[in-house]
Amino acid sequence: MDCIFCKIVKGEIPSSKVYEDDEILVFNDLNPQAPIHFLVIPKKHIESCNYITEENKDIVGKIFLKIKELSKEMGFFESGYRIINNCNEDGQQTVKHLHFHVLAKRKMTWPPG
Ligand code: 5GP
Ligand code: ZN
Prior knowledge:
By secondary structure, the protein is of the alpha+beta class. Helices cover 20% and strands 22% of the residues. It has 2 helices and 5 strands; from the N terminus they run αβββαββ. Strand 1 and strand 2 form a beta hairpin. The longest helix has 16 residues, at 58-73. It is globular and about 40 Å long. It starts with a helix and ends in a 9-residue tail after the last strand. The structure holds guanosine-5'-monophosphate and zinc ion (ZN). Guanosine-5'-monophosphate binds at residues 4, 13, 15, 27-31, 86, 92-95. Residues 3, 5-6, 45, 97 line the site of zinc ion.
């Protein structure tokens, strides 16, 4: 399967890793949109949030708990942050492997573009 993020999981494409365990990989976005901008992905390929099911839904809770832990370690738990998931064409999803952007250390704007 030709998936960039699966290749990052396998180490075939280098990445700047923030955290890794058996199920989750966190790495810095190549094109950061904030002083902190990392991506959190399940190691197992899930195409988008449209493919979250009864069987694989636990990974989403684990990802959000890990984001909370990292926010404390990296010093933005109190100041705040933004978690973004883009889905399909209107959502501007460019990589078809479920990922959550985490942006922090600047004041975000609303509404998003
Ligand atoms: P999407 O637009 O699908 O929500 O987000 C994909 C994100 O992946 C983009 O922010 C883009 O900068 C990032 N990205 C794409 N290719 C790579 C890569 O090879 N390495 C890293 N670290 N980030 C990537
Ligand atoms: Zn993948």
